[in-house]
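User: Structure tokens for both sequences below?

Assistant:
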Amino acid sequence: MVSPASILVYVGLDAVGDGLIKLPFIRALRQAFPAARITWMAGKGHTVYADTLAPVVSGLIDEVLDEAGLGSKVAELLRRPLPDRSFDLIIDTQRRLLTTLILKRIRHGRFISASGNFRLSDARPGPGWSKPPAMVAQLMTLVELASGKPAEASAPLPRQPETEAEAERLLPSGPAYVGLAPGAGGKYKCWPLERFIELGRRITNRGAVPVILLGPAETEWRDEITTALPQALFPLQQIAGVTPMLTIALARRMRAAVANDSGTGHMLAAADITLISLFGPTPPEKFAPSTARLHLLRAQDFGTAAMEAIPVQAVEAVLSPLL
């Protein structure tokens, strides 16, 4: 199979959560095609790869076509989209048939799409394949069809020297750091704060330093945590203008981390560290971060779907060998 020199990836749009979840797909695509020029097109809205997450995908994506206004109208079938462009490979990440037909009008060599059960795709899964529940796993299937080999999300994320230096200032070399991210988009997804605090005590007793990662909606927890864990560090509260790049850089300096089903959890996963991911009401098979060193703990395995069902001892048992 000839390796493509140019690749177009089509998405509808990417909010921040989408962008974080798709990072393993982008890393796998770059790993599969290291020399290709990759263009990311958001046809129906805005992609955070054009601004908020642009530094995170620098070198992984070469070009972003933001809010392209392509893929929604039947009339688009009567003309050739992107008339001055052609691509060796187009990867269609959505499943709406009309949009897929419009994309096929773009000049291309090969076309990969799950739309219509892969009927419009130049490659399709073999017999017995079933659609995986996780979006990132579905995207990995597209990489495998395009490359003809297993997808590996191993292409490194970029590093900014100034961001790495700031992370080192906030978490100097020496101690063993363990990240604790107690927040999430909904309180029903949060392991009780007192459990995180108790885990922090046990981490401290083992000679490690708890690093508390609080988002803007969780800063009110800082006083309670500080009172219970005076040794804990709060690096995200030490500076203005926190970015995903800094959170990932901080995570690289940690021995391991514990997080709920949250955006912070996906940032920690992007750092390729050991991540203990806590799930309850939300299905991990759909939303769990994609990383090689993931330890998943489900509340259901301890009796109920409520997050408080997960005991501190279960989390500590995973952490202990790392400390």
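Moving on to the next sequence.
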Amino acid sequence: MAKLQRRTRRDRAGDDPGEPTTQQAPEPAAEGDPTDRRTTAQRLRLSVAGSGPVLLLQASHPRQALATGLGLGIAALAADRPAREAAVVAATGVVGQAILGWHNDIVDRATDARHHTPGKPVADGRLEVGSAWYALVLGVLLVIPLSISTGVDAGTFYLAALAVGLLGNVVLRRGRLSWVSWAVQYALYAPFLALGGWGGTAVGEPPEVAMVVLFGLLGIGVHFLRSVWGLVADDADGWTYLPLVLGRRLGAARLLAVSAAYTGAVLVAIVVVGTTLGLRH
């Protein structure tokens, strides 16, 4: 693991490698304390950074949520879906990924606390577990009508993908089959996009098998990319998932490069196959 010791950040199945590093906010000085030299702007920033909505946003892994939503929205546009449909698809992806982020931080709170993982308000006690659960439940109540608003069939596939992601947060993730939940989750995005339309009664054409397979392969690539930032901590916990096994042999830097190249190649294949299928129709 010598090559991996350069990596000190932790990642889980639903963690965001781009999450900002956030330290425990200092306790505000007593009002009128002459030793408090902070400006009003500094006090305001500390107050905002420690507020409930900001902490909930941080625990939702916002960069991953935005990236997933944007990716699904772009895919919908590429499939010649109208802008309003693509916007609903993107919103569904953002909310669904936020749910996965809250659930991941709840499940991993003890481990994150033990490793002092930065940017984890649930683990460091700044955000109560109950508050995260409350946000998660509200997110579920929102994502259900969002997903089925582009068709009940399409929405059912998205909700199935979300269920697989939640299940992946608690099972398989520590062993050699960690990639399975990622592959299944992303493969289910293909029928969500293909069957969608406008309104609950909308029914599109089923996706081609090739696209389902490529989406599944994309999920594996995303899993590898996201795992790189947590290899050292995961190895210390005795995990044996596939990215960690390869990371021991290649080192974190090479694993990141290989994972990025693989994911990029799958994305190119999705574009090429999607364009070819579109021309045939």
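User: Anything stand out in the second?

Assistant: Residues 52 and 205 are 43 Å apart (CA to CA).
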